[in-house]
Amino acid sequence: MYIYNVTTNIEETAHHTWVKWMKETHIPQVLSTGKFLSAKFTKVLVEEDMGGFTYSVQYTVPDKETLERYYEEDAPALIESIQSKFAGQLVSFKTELEVVDEYFVQRAAATHYLFTYGTLQEREVQLGVFSRSLNGFEDELPLYIISENKVADLYPTLQHTGVKEDVIKGQVYTLSHQELQKADKYEGEAYERILIQLASGKKAWAYIAK
Questions:
Q1: Does residue 90 share a domain with residue 128?
Q2: Tens digits of residue pLDDT in 80-101
Q3: Helix (H, G, I), strand (E, B) or coil at 72
Q4: Which part of the chain is the Gamma-glutamylcyclotransferase AIG2-like domain (predicted)?
Q5: How far apart are the first and last CA of the chain?
Q6: Which domain holds residue 199?
C-alpha cells in the first residue's frame, strides 16, 4: 500500500476559506475518483518562517499503478481547480510513501460481530477503514440472497427471500464499538446496518441498501 501525501502552506488571509473548501469540496472530490481508500487531513504544528499555516493530507492508495492512474486521469483537473481558486495564496508539494509494515497497539475489547459479503473482506480496505487487517471466520446467512439490483450499479446488497434454501456465505469479524462506527462511515448513506442471525446461531450486524 502507498500513501500519497500533499503538504500545503496557505496564507493567513485565505486560511479559513481554504480549510472549509478542503473539507467540504476538494478532499471529497479526490476520494470520489475511486482511486483512494481513505484520507487524513492534518495540521502541521510548526511556526513557518514564511508565515501562514501548513497542512498535510494523506491519501491511502492500494498500489502504485492506481496512483499513476490518478496522476493521469484526475490530478490535472483537480490541481487546476486549486490554482484557479487560491492562485498565489498557497504553496504545495507532494510526497509518495510506500508502507513497508504496520504495527498496532492492543485494542479495547471488541464486542460486535459484523457479517461481510463484499469489499470489507479486502485487506486494503480494512487497513484504510480500521487501520488494521481483520481476522475473521466463515459463516452463513440463511434466508437471504445477493440482490441483482446493485447500489449505484456497482455495490452488492442483501435481499431477504425467506426461502430456506437461500443462503449467503461470508466472513464474520469482531469489532469494537468505535470500529463499527468507522464501518458505518465507510458504507455511507446508501446502506443501513441491521441485526441478523447467522447459521451458527450468532447474532451479527450486516449492511443492506436503504
A1: no
A2: 999 999 999 999 999 999 988 8
A3: helix
A4: 114-209
A5: 32
A6: 110-207
